């Protein structure tokens, strides 16, 4: 059987694909790769069909051994990559002979690397996706040392491509947001979001990222009000009554009872997913 044997997982390794959108009515979040462009790039580099499953690596640190000849690609946050101890390039297709070991080191910028393998990981499907969902528990368990990850059939020839340019996240990331649906709960929602420079805290995961900064002030007549639980979307900027905002990511709860002051543009969420603690955040409010 063609497979990858996990010698070491690193801080966190999860099976991921495009996720399982459309099941919020069941209480199931969309899940899937937090840095969608990096995940999609990996599949293109190894010639996979769209949506093939790979690995999302928080903080790198993965070491895997090939069972059978494999072609792989490491994308996302730039990190040192070796094959049998020899330096190799990220963001391009790499050949792993049978028994070869691939190591992904700690990213030099950003948080999450992605490992694509030609044929995709043949993990069980739940509600149309192979992604691990940390909130609901759907999908495969987080990858552990010693796991054997089956690989699907070879999809076809590997495209010919050179290294792909990759950018390291800067000290400040810009996020575009659209106001609402509960921006009317705050005295000056535009200034509350766009005025401060926010900071990514260490209190974050695939469910959401908590920011450090001044808590947006509610209108006086609403300070003691409670909001009935309502639907939440990926990118929702939720404001608890006693602290700064939380930006929901792909494994977010599907309902919540705190007001959502704005929603981040989907195209900007991969920037936040790659932002290490201490990164500055600037909101631009769209009209």
From TrEMBL:
Entry coiled-coil feature ranges: none
State if S-adenosyl-L-methionine is listed as a keyword: no
SUPFAM superfamilies linked to this entry: Cyclophilin-like
Name the source's superkingdom. Bacteria
Under the heading Pfam families, the entry gives: CT_A_B
User: Which InterPro entries does its entry note?
Assistant: CT_A_B (IPR003778), Cyclophilin-like_dom_sf (IPR029000), PxpC (IPR052708)
Q: Which UniProt keywords apply?
A: ATP-binding, Hydrolase, Nucleotide-binding
Residues forming the Carboxyltransferase domain are: 25-287
Entry protein name:
Biotin-dependent carboxyltransferase family protein
According to its UniProt entry, this protein's organism is Pseudonocardia tropica
